[in-house]
Design a protein that fits this description.
- The protein has about 525 residues and is of the alpha/beta class.
- Among the domains are: about 180 residues, inorganic pyrophosphatase (n-terminal core), CATH 3.90.1640.10; about 110 residues, Diaminopimelate Epimerase, Chain A, domain 1, CATH 3.10.310.
- It is built from 17 helices and 23 strands.
- The strands form 5 sheets. A 6-stranded parallel beta sheet has the order 3-2-1-16-17-18. Strands 7-9-10-11-12-8 form a 6-stranded mixed beta sheet. Strands 19-20-21-22-23 form a 5-stranded mixed beta sheet.
- The mean pLDDT is about 90.
């Protein structure tokens, strides 16, 4: 069954990552085993610390949820080697009437060509002008004739070549054996068999008859094959021993890969209008066949969004996916769905507070390690309960999770926020918790770093501002803000790149050198974004 991805926002923070893990665990515990925790970017050092502390692996990294070729119900025919007989290919096509063609592979599994009914029909019609075999593997001949080699000379033959001759009474004559480079098919005809062996023809095929004992003593280089088929059927079948690699379509092939987006594939299909197309994996190995009918009803990827409900913060390709649920604690934004869905949005400080309530609603208790990690996520998102977004419910929930995990909230919080940032470059610092917003025609980005010692980070102010200018140029946003939220100071320094008047008017301060300090401002969600929204109407 295809997974249902539970994912937080881009540039995920601890609350986002843990919420995805916790909700997937809840649904899987209830029997919905297809739920998979996912993330949209690199796990931050803080989050990795929490994961390591409680023994969890990071969620599956996904880059998009576009509908891809791998989401289609394409055909998965047998993949035949180039040495397979025409007879085998034809039987496979007859058994699978829905197949337009069968892929032919090289020995390493990569694509050589396609074999279709039309290719086989063209080959058979071409036999009217040629009735010779050209170095057809002996095993192929034995396979189609259900034959066996019955003399020593045949044991040294690897391929069968020559003009195919059917020994019928009308063909008897002095010219019958003028060319030893032939493959003769005959029945119980001792005189013809004798002459064939004496002339050392390439191959003699005996149909429904044994080699007479007196003829078995003749020294000959002729390969003798016995087949249970009559001469006329053997004559038809022997040409079906040709390897399909010789007759398959090998030019002007068009292939797609599993990761290719369906909307781009459709454009190619309507442009070239071929009967079918091969599908390859990332190693160029064949995995299936695609026709235009497979494009009619693609399976959309399914996602559950946690800790966000804004399209710009979500996974690329969301418009092509089925959103099943949203669990969040932010303002309602711009995500739209095709059908009614379950939405749980509460004014609390952490998404994990909501998910802990959902565990309770279902009569389940998180495991000790999961409960400890959820407590850490609540501490992180509420800045050790000092953020204005923090509610009594957040505090009570974190305390309950800490009791289940047998951990100290005070020690856990200090461990999270004392994580050193000295080794990070400016880009990594800015991306620690970075989000983009679109408010009343204004595009902006706000990053937040929560720490116990903002002074050490402010020493790198010039480096950070330079990186913020780079981000502004690359993303075409008009304002980039970095919040340095100091838990001990219970406030935030704002470093910004953009219009001084916006900062001055929004926060009623006088900025200096692209920096201001806002006491008691700890929340991007509840203090920074609403203030800017009010300014811009």
């Amino acid at each position: 069954m295809e997974p249902i991805y539970v994912t937080g926002h881009q540039n995920p923070d601890t609350d986002s990552i843990v919420a995805a893990i916790a909700y997937a665990s809840l649904r899987n515990a209830l029997g919905d085993k297809e739920y998979t925790a996912a993330c949209l970017g690199r796990v931050s050092d803080e989050t990795q610390l929490v994961l390591n502390h409680f023994g969890f692996e990071p969620p599956t990294l996904i880059t998009n949820v576009y509908t891809q070729v791998q989401d289609l119900d394409f055909d998965k025919p047998p993949i035949l080697n180039a040495g397979v007989t025409v007879d085998r290919a034809w039987n496979e096509l007859q058994e699978r009437k829905e197949l337009r063609a069968i892929p032919v592979a090289n020995d390493d599994g990569t694509l050589l060509g396609l074999i279709s009914r039309e290719d086989i029909a063209s080959y058979n019609m071409g036999l009217n002008n040629s009735s010779a075999l050209n170095k057809v593997p002996l095993f192929n001949v034995l396979s189609v004739l259900e034959g066996k080699v019955i003399n020593d000379a045949g044991e040294y033959l690897d391929t069968v070549s020559g003009e195919v001759v059917l020994a019928i009474p009308e063909s008897r004559g002095p010219g019958m054996f003028s060319n030893s480079d032939c493959v003769m098919i005959c029945g119980h005809q001792p005189d013809i068999i004798r002459k064939a062996l004496e002339n050392n023809i390439n191959c003699l095929i005996l149909c429904k008859t044994e080699l007479p004992s007196e003829l078995a003593e003749i020294k000959t280089d002729t390969c003798i094959i016995y087949t249970p088929y009559d001469a006329y059927k053997a004559t038809r079948l022997i040409f079906q021993s040709t390897p399909i690699g010789r007759i398959c379509l090998r030019k002007d092939l068009l292939s797609f890969h599993l990761e290719d987006r369906v909307d781009l594939v459709k454009e190619m299909v309507w442009k070239y209008r071929k009967p079918c197309y091969t599908i390859l994996d990332e190693k160029e190995k064949i995995v299936g066949i695609l026709t235009r009918y497979h494009l009619l009803r693609p399976r959309r990827k399914r996602v559950v969004l946690v800790d966000h409900n804004e399209a710009s913060q979500s996974v690329p390709g969301l418009e092509e996916a089925d959103i099943l649920e949203i669990i969040d604690h932010h303002r309602l934004a711009d995500i739209q769905t095709a059908n009614p869905i379950f939405v749980r949005n509460e004014p609390v400080g952490s998404t994990n507070t909501i998910i802990a309530s959902m565990f309770q609603d279902k009569g389940l208790i998180p495991s000790e390690k999961l409960a400890g990690m959820m407590a850490a996520a609540i501490l992180s998102d509420t800045v050790m309960f000092k953020s204005p977004t923090c509610t009594v419910k957040d505090i009570r929930t974190a305390e309950r999770m800490a009791r289940i995990a047998n951990v100290s909230l005070d020690e856990l919080g200090k461990k999270i926020f004392s994580e050193s940032v000295a080794g990070k470059n400016a880009k990594d610092l800015l991306n620690t918790d970075y989000k983009e917003f679109h408010i009343a025609g204004h595009d902006l980005a706000v990053s937040q770093i929560t720490c116990l010692d903002s002074a050490s980070i402010l020493q790198r102010k010039d480096e950070l501002l330079e990186q913020m200018k780079t981000v502004a140029d690359e993303t075409d946003v008009s304002l980039v803000i970095l919040m340095l939220t100091d838990v001990l100071l219970e406030g935030s320094y704002l470093l910004y790149v953009g219009d001084d008047d916006i900062i001055s008017q929004a926060f009623d301060v006088i900025p200096k050198d692209n920096e201001v300090f806002l006491p008691e401002v700890m929340s991007r969600k509840k203090q920074i974004i609403p203030t800017l929204s009010a300014l811009w109407g």
